[in-house]
Structure formats: C-alpha cells, structure tokens
Amino acid sequence: MSKKLNIHCLQHVPFEGLGCIENWIQEHGHSLSYTTLYHNPKFPDLDTIDALIILGGPMSIHDEAKFPWLKDEKVFVKSAIDRRKKIIGICLGAQLISNVLGGKITDNEQKEIGWFPVSILDSNVAILNGYPKSFSVFHWHGETFSIPENAIRLMESEACANQAFLYNDKVLGLQFHLEVTDEAMKQMAFHEQSELVKDTYVQTYDEIVSNTTFIKENNQLMFSLLDNLFK
C-alpha cells in the first residue's frame, strides 16, 4: 500500500470519533482532515480527497429541521459516491449512504445497543477476506437502513437483518462500531446513557463499559476492512 491517501472524516458529535481508525491512518502515513458538523459544517473540494469516512451520531438522517447541515451533508456524500471515492459509513454514516442511494431509513423493530454477534452472509466477498463467519460487535442504533439497489448485503444479526452492505466495491456501510476503543465505548455510553433502558437487545451501562473482551478483535477486523477497501 504505497500510495498515501488524503482521507476526510465527517464527524457528527465530539464523543463519536475515529477510534482505532486514526491509528490505522497514522501507521500508513495517510493524511487526515475533518468536517466537524457540530461545530463548522463546511465540506472540502472533492478533488482534494481520496477517501471519506462518515462517522456515527445520535441524530437521525430525518432530523434536518434540527440539524440543517444534514441536507448539505447528503448532497456531499452523494457527490463523493458519484465521483467514485472510496467511502466507509459507520452507523449514522451507513444510513446516510443508504439514503442518498435511494434506500429507506426506518425504525428497527428492536433497539440494538451493546455487544451482540453479527453473521456474514457471503464469505466470498473479497473485502471480508479472512473474516470469521460470526463475531461479536458493538452496536448502538434504533433505526435501520434498507440495502440500496445494486449493493450487496454482507451481514445480519438476530435483532437487525441489515448490518452491512457494499456498493460498487468502493462504498461500505456498517451499522455497528468496529472502530470502538475502550475510551470511545465509555464516551458513547456516558453521553447516550438515557437510551439504555434494558431490553432484549439493549444492555445496561455497566454491562457495556465492563466488557472489553471483543475490542481487540473488532479493531483487527476494522484494520482488515480498511486494508482491503483502501488498497
């Protein structure tokens, strides 16, 4: 991986950052820039970036009245896809990608918050090379995306049928958080703990922050995805 990339990050709230992705970017010597939508929602010229990472956040893609920048963000994301940039969308980021590609974002039957397994539907997809058939990941969502037309559905869980998709071999949507570190997980749990009403697929604050078992594996799987997508 000799080419150095200009990677741009869309960040929606200060407590949901890149996590381990920042380590991967530094290790490979790529450059990193940000649009902090909560502070300064200005977008770069697409000619100046090679790849885009769209992070999560507690808002919905439908909240344009409350967050007017969502409208401009959708235009920017669609333009980046049309320009064939390599893109990863995480949680809200994946829902934004699905939406601009004509998909629907709706309430999931169950909220899914905490550590629960996902299963791979097709191990032959190159981007998942070396992945286990099933593994536990960190979830935090009440909504779900439909799979955009011409995209490949990659993963599912008991609570949510659509967990990941790949579009044109360049655009990856993940409903869950492989990037999460111990500190990032605690930040999300602290700032969004009002959502932690115990349910079938909602763990308690203590259950979440005390479980660091899968973080190392999740970060390794994130690195593998980044290697495969950005090679």
Polypeptide structure, described:
InterPro entries: ChyE-like, Class_I_gatase-like, GATASE. Keywords: Glutamine amidotransferase. Pfam families: GATase. The protein is an alpha/beta fold and 231 residues long. The chain has a single domain (6-230), classed as Rossmann fold. It has helices at 20-28, 69-82, 92-100, 182-191, 205-209, 215-230, and strands spanning 6-11, 31-36, 51-54, 86-90, 105-120, 134-145, 151-156, 164-167, 171-174. It has a nine-stranded mixed sheet, sandwiched between helices. Helix 2 (69-82) crosses helix 3 (92-100). The longest helix has 16 residues, at 215-230. The N and C termini lie close together (6 Å). The mean pLDDT is 97.
Question: Could you outline the blueprint of secondary structure elements for this entry?
Answer:
Layout: E1 6-11, H1 20-28, E2 31-36, E3 51-54, H2 69-82, E4 86-90, H3 92-100, E5 105-120, E6 134-145, E7 151-156, E8 164-167, E9 171-174, H4 182-191, H5 205-209, H6 215-230
Helix pairs in contact: 2-3
